[in-house]
From TrEMBL:
InterPro entries, A to Z: Pyridox_Oxase_N, Split_barrel_FMN-bd
SUPFAM superfamilies from the UniProt entry: FMN-binding split barrel
Domain Pyridoxamine 5'-phosphate oxidase N-terminal: 46-149
Superkingdom classification of source: Bacteria
The name this protein goes by in its record: Pyridoxamine 5'-phosphate oxidase family protein
Length: 208
């Protein structure tokens, strides 16, 4: 069981509030045995990560402000790499460079990955670094998605510290345009067939 995620986030203040609220015993069992060793990405997490088309990434500015950014791309653009690491290519965008600047002074990040149709979510803690394209063009090229028509400028590498799966409560299922099209494909086909039959009947009626 992944333990380092909660062990990392449970401060003494959080534990005290849990004790006062009567939940500390449960969380103490979940945290038992954690020694700071990173939670290891398994095949289950890797499959979930590889199926995502987007995620949210939080970083912290040099002045301590949290910053949340949405990252999107073709399915599988966030890669699971050896040594319990994640990576993705960063493409040319609005040139604000907020996340990139944040990581220069504070490498800690938090990722939030959502699977709305199946009401699943995975939270990840890690330490990230940015590798400019000029420093390692081979790395950036290996993380770029060949079919994605955008210019990669750098790579983000994230060493996973911990992760946690969350319960589905309060997650409203949402579907992409492609998922909806696939779900209603039989109805679309039937509708097209009925329209064709109606046109035939109309043509026949005119002929009579």
């Amino acid at each position: 069981m992944a333990q380092n995620y909660i062990h990392t986030l449970f401060t003494d203040a959080a534990r005290a509030l849990q004790e006062a609220d009567g939940s500390r015993a449960t969380y103490a069992r979940m945290e038992a045995g954690a020694d700071g060793t990173p939670d290891q990405i398994t095949a289950s997490e890797a499959a979930f990560i590889g199926a995502r088309e987007s995620f949210y990434m939080a970083s912290v500015t040099s002045e301590g402000w949290p910053y949340m950014q949405h990252r999107g791309g073709p399915q599988g653009f966030l890669r699971v790499l050896p040594d319990n690491r994640l990576g993705f290519a960063d493409y040319r965008g609005n040139r604000q460079h907020i996340s990139t600047a944040n990581l220069q002074s504070e490498p800690r990040v938090s990722l939030f990955l959502m699977d709305y149709p199946n009401r699943r979510r995975l939270k990840i803690l890690g330490k990230a670094r940015v590798v400019p394209q000029a420093d390692d063009p081979a790395l950036v090229a290996s993380l770029a998605v060949a079919s994605y028509k955008a210019v990669p400028e750098r790579a983000y590498l994230i060493d996973v510290i911990g992760f946690e799966w969350n319960c589905p409560q309060h997650i409203t299922p949402r579907f992409t345009e492609a998922q909806i099209a696939a779900a209603i494909a039989p109805l679309t086909e039937e509708n097209a067939q009925l329209r064709a039959e109606i046109e035939i009947l109309r043509a026949s009626a005119k002929g009579n």
